[in-house]
Amino acid sequence: MKKSMLDSPHRPYVNINSNTFTTRKSLSDRTFYGLIYLMTIVAIIVTLYPFLYVLSISFSSVEAIDQQKVILFPVGFTLSGYKMVLQYQELWVSFYNTLWYTVVGTVLNILFTCLAAFPLSRPRFFLRRKLNFFIAFTMYFSGGLIPVYMLITSLGLYNTRWAMVLPVLVITFNVMICRSAFEGIPNEIFESANIDGANDITMLFKLAIPIIKPTLAVLTLYYAVYHWNNFFSALLYLGKQDLQPLQMFLRRVLIMASPEVMQKMGGSMSTSALAVSTLQVRYVSIVVSILPIVTIYPFIQRYFVKGITLGAVKG
Amino acid sequence: MGKKSISLMKLIKRDKYLLIMFAPVFVYYVIFMYIPMPGVLIAFKNFTPGHGIFGGDWVGLQWFAQFVHSIYFWRLLRNTFLLAFLPLLFGFGIPILFAVCIVEIKNQVFKRFAQTITYLPHFISTVVVAGMLINFLSPADGIVNTLLARFGMEKVNFMMEAGWFRTIFTSSEIWQSFGFSSIIYIAAIMSIDPEMYDSGKIDGVSKFQELWHLTLPSIKPTIVILLLLSLGGIMSVGFEKVYLLYNGATYETADVLSTYVYRMGIEGQNYGFATAVGLFNSIITFVLVFTVNRITRRMTNMSLW
């Protein structure tokens, strides 16, 4: 740029031409970046607005909601909605249940995933190919909803906590990911441990698992989110309300808007005040239920890219 | 033969710890995956709960015939296809476009912020997403109808009108998945050799040209594989979201094979018929996945399994 300006007295036309060329180019590139930022901002607004609206309603006063003043930010800040929801026994019971299913389920998931994946990753294991096929087959063929449902009920798991945990002890696809991670460990590490007299079980727990920790972190995340959000198993196997997880509670509050639940939470109120406060109760319930995920999630976000590309490794 | 059994014993002895390790996993797969498999036989039987899956009379293809001739057959097929196809048609390009945006953003803080926000809906449960939709669209106190009324427009009872179901379902699917689906494209773009961009810069290529002639062609294999993968799943739309959003008034556009199986089987106790419908769905899905895998192998020399 500077050089061409120095040259300008000698070759004015060329210079003008090259100048218009650079401005046109940078104009095109500026349009490009303008569009990039515009689209990203639209994406953020579209994603964020529903959450922001839910949050704002949950903090707004009943009068403001009734007069439909809340569009973006809270109007007439109050915590009364939270007070109402948080003293509701059923919420805490279902919260505890979800926590139980998530913790017990995820711990067992990770244990069984490692137990399945490690033998399948050992090249010398004489049943390796057969057992690989044995588990992979279930990815393409299953008994289907009704036979599985009949099995669970005939095992006596209906209306027990184990119905939420045992039927999905491992997800076969995750075993494949874990197996690839074990296969990525250099063989020399195992050979030297072998010389030291370590058996396969010690090798798995003392050597292999610590090495593939990043992969296991991703799998833990996937399993935990699965359990936290699992609604279908509860719909099928948990008729008893005091065993039901948060998602079933939310369904009653948000989707069926069960009048009985609303009545219990609202206490003694006039009907119009009740109508508005039940609206607030619904939005508060959403906030309370997604709060754990929203708070934990930014800390584990950095694992995502890794986790997604893990799935792309030979399945 | 004696020699073979000796060597087998030797192998078992050598790999005993691996066998012990796998034993609980084996038991799990046998009980929860393999034992239900012969259960598909009740699709060909007159099943009564008292007799178990091996009791009851054979009825051949009676349940299948009943299903194929039922008035719901084409409706279920059409809905199952459309509720997977429409999100694919309108939503497939968005993660690619969004990935390009994320990669091009220079401000690291803004970039992180955009990623954090847009990945979030992927982790929100279907119940919450369905609950938000129903409450936002409610004719009594939903924000959408409040705004419609404020602009002097007629209120719409969205969840009770069959004509709205596909729009609601498709847009919420896209809303929930576009950010997270972009991750794999971001990874693909980041793995393009930077030298290719450098040589482009010397030639004075504009950003639009760079996108069209360099970035998109470089990630074409990723795009093709993901497109084929989603085509394989086109007859297996998820149960939960449809189940939570639909109701008797919207069955016309909302009822899909999996929800129908649930209503007939679990709610209606019509085990034989429901299993037949479920098996019908699995077979279509299997054929689709199998075909897609063959096409993928031919096109990219890569197998999905």
- The CATH class of the largest domain in chain A is Mainly Alpha
Order of helices and strands of chain B: HHEEHHHHHHHHHHHHHH
Shape of chain A: globular
| CATH second-level architecture of the largest domain in chain B | Orthogonal Bundle
What is the end-to-end distance of chain B? 35 Å
Sheet with the most strands: spatial strand order of chain B: 1-2
CATH topology group of the largest domain in chain B: MetI-like fold
Q: Write down the overall geometry of chain B.
A: globular
Residues in β-strands, percent of chain A: under 5%
Mean of residue pLDDT values of chain B: 88
Question: Which residue ranges of chain A are poorly predicted, with pLDDT under 50 across at least 5 consecutive positions?
Answer: 1-22
Helical proportion of chain B, percent range? over 70%
Tally the helices of chain A.
16
CATH architectural label of the largest domain in chain A = Orthogonal Bundle
Helix content of chain A: over 70%
What is the CATH homology-level superfamily of the largest domain in chain A? MetI-like
Distance between the termini of chain A: 52 Å
Gyration radius of chain A, in Å: 29 Å
Q: What count of structural domains of chain B?
A: 2
Family (chain A): Belongs to the binding-protein-dependent transport system permease family.
Protein name (chain A): Protein LplC
Keywords (chain A): Cell membrane, Membrane, Transmembrane, Transmembrane helix, Transport
Transmembrane segments (chain A): 32-52, 99-119, 131-152, 164-182, 203-225, 281-300
Task: Write the topology of this structure.
The complex is a heterodimer of chains A (315) and B (305).
Chain A: H1 2-7, H2 12-59, H3 62-66, H4 80-86, H5 89-121, H6 128-136, H7 145-154, H8 172-183, H9 187-195, H10 200-211, H11 213-229, H12 232-237, H13 246-255, H14 259-266, H15 271-300, H16 303-312
Chain B: H1 2-14, H2 16-34, E1 45-46, E2 57-58, H3 62-69, H4 73-91, H5 93-104, H6 108-119, H7 126-137, H8 143-150, H9 162-190, H10 194-202, H11 207-218, H12 220-232, H13 239-245, H14 251-254, H15 257-267, H16 271-300
